[in-house]
Amino acid sequence: MKTAVVTDSTAYIPKEIRDQYDIHMIPLIVAFGTETYQEEVDISAAEFFEKVRHQELPTTSQPPVGKFAELFEALAKDYDAVVCIHLSSGISGTYQGAITAGQMVENLDVYAYDTEISCMVQGFYVIEAAKMAKEKMPPEKIIEKLDRLKKSVHAYFMVDDLSHLQRGGRLTSAQAIIGSLLKVKPLLHFEHKVIVPFEKIRTKKKAMNRIVDLLTEATKSGELYQAVIIHANREEDAKEWKAELERLLPHVEFSIGYFGAVIGTHLGEGAMGLGWMKKE
Questions:
Q1: What are 152-193's pLDDT values in tens digits?
Q2: Contact at 8 Å (CB) between 101 and 112?
Q3: 48 with 80: CB under 8 angstroms?
Q4: CA 212 – CA 206 distance, rounded (Å)
Q5: Domain range spanning residue 92?
Q6: What is the pTM of this model?
């Protein structure tokens, strides 16, 4: 069975890696007034953060179901199945859109997968699936492995300004107001598919140290892990943190990812996170 792998733009997998593993990508949309952009196609993360300094915060939306159906129709000519891996269904309807489109297309088995997370941690799932697809593994086996890996996945992040999350409906008004009044840097994470506060911490440095403690605890067995530092237009800070983490945790393989336009709309510039997954 020949299986294609599809994801959405919020995995923020660099194009050269998508090309290397034959990963197909469906973009989400950001809209500044009447101007709409497909993220990672029409607008890069750097262009987005530059643009948002001079304009009102944009709105974001999931890909049209028709975009999925169009891609699936094209893939059906060469593939028997698709494993379609998406950001958490608790913050976007993208996953459901893939399911709906899959029911519209004949001669193609569509396996939609909810990572319950986003950004390059979502990308870890996608790359693993793509490697297995290249080895002609059946889609059921790919899904089984993704479920197994999910047990080791965690990600924590902090934002400079909670108002972005509150305005986008990803955090309640009360949580945003309390955080702003107390000048805290709350650690956030995904729980039951949605973004919720994990702990309230006073300073950015203490928040970063707390994330390191959580990663250290998760990897204390010495098993191999991959981890990604994710930043919102703070590449130099990410590089410094990566060098520090590599010294502290040599058994963990670190990389640097980023918050692109859609996720950046909700987190704001300056957000920083760290996510990890066990390597089998």
A1: 999 999 887 655 555 545 455 455 545 554 566 678 899 999
A2: no
A3: no
A4: 10
A5: 3-28+63-148
A6: 0.92
